[in-house]
Amino acid sequence: MAEWVYEARTRAGEVQTGMIEADSKEAVQSRLRARQLNPLKIKKKGRQRKLSFGTGVTPKELVVFTRQFATMIDAGLPLVQCLDILSSRGDNKALNAILKDVKDHVEQGGTFSEGLGKHPKLFDELFVNLVRAGEMGGILDTILNRLAGYIEKRVKLARQVRGAMVYPVAIFFVAIIVVVVMLAWVIPSFKTMFSEFGGEDGLPALTQLVITASEGFLNNVHWIILGTGAFVFTITWIYRQPVGKHFFHRTLLVLPILGPVMRKISVARFTRTLGTLLSAGVPILDAL
Fold first, then answer.
1. I need a surface site. Which of 7, 139, 194, 270 has the fewest CB within 10 A?
2. CATH of the domain at 141
3. CA gap 138, 146 in Å, rounded
């Protein structure tokens, strides 16, 4: 099916725009009339190829959407109307496009949870499964409010972890910068000074070792940069593999200082997620 961009007028005289997947222009017109909309313009959407990194939606925007959607459902508004309002009045174009796609999926007979599942980068398995449980139990508004609270607590925990890691990471990078400056500029200047005084041969062994390290760094700086880039690329590729990610996570848990902190964070996330699932009525075996 092709994608069609439409402009239609409501009974109240308001002009609405949106996108519908349909086989033909006539099918779009019939669907708009079924929704009590008078078609003004219908245009086939051209194919666009663009690179996207991430979802373009922040956790705060996801929380706002979830709470607004829960409020509308609690007020008794139809599901499609809620999605139509939120997708047409939001400030984030990426989120608006995702909500329009979910709305089209629901209009075609699919469930709300299935529509969310088509966008796993934004709505993870926990979000989709909780929404599915809310649909089955008729408590979708309650589930959405709990999801919003869960996301807020998760973001707060991640912010605290990042805040705790700022100081050691800053110290690490400052140390690297200091070492590079010493090897590239400071030590060569001392070597020149020692050569002018004619005492380079009588320097202590440790001083000669530092000068040799500086010369090796300057002579092989390009190889060092290439090697560092290759190392980072290799580690990133291994981490993206299931076996590699499992290895790194196990190693992280047994580190002397960082290990206990990561274990506490993992336990906090597990208990919070399990509590959210159980409070939503998900059986404990399915939740685990």
1. 270
2. 1.20.81.30
3. 14
Query: In terms of domains, do 264 and 174 share one?
Result: yes
- Position 100, amino acid: K
Q: Per the domain annotation, does 7 fall within a domain?
A: yes
Which range of residues forms the domain containing residue 212? 169-276
In a domain, residue 287? The reply is: no
Euclidean distance between CA atoms 279 and 288, whole angstroms: 14
pLDDT at 201: 64
**Total count of residues recorded for the chain:** 288
Same domain for 74 and 106, yes or no, is yes
The span from the CA of 266 to the CA of 269, in Å, is 5
Mark whether 127 and 34 lie in a shared domain. Answer: no
Residues 6 and 95 in one domain: no
Extended beta strands in 29-168, E state: 38-44
Contact 128, 113 (CB under 8 A): yes
Residue 252 within any structural domain of the chain? yes
User: Mean pLDDT of all residues in the chain?
Assistant: 84
Residues 192 and 239 in one domain: yes
Q: Are 49 and 57 in contact (CB under 8 A)?
A: no
d(CA 143, CA 164): 32
pLDDT digits (tens, 9 = 90+) for 95-107: 888 999 999 888 8
Q: Is 270 helix (H, G, I), strand (E, B) or coil?
A: helix
Q: Produce one character per residue of 145-170: b if its CB has 16 or more CB atoms within 10 Å, e if not.
A: bbbbebbbebeeeeeeeeeeeeeeee
Residue where one domain finishes, among candidates 152, 178, 210 = 152
DSSP code, position 22 = E
CA torsion, points 274, 113, 157, 277, in degrees to nearest 10?
Answer: -10
| Higher pLDDT pick, 282 / 59 | 59
At residue 42, φ and ψ (nearest 5 deg) are -135, 120
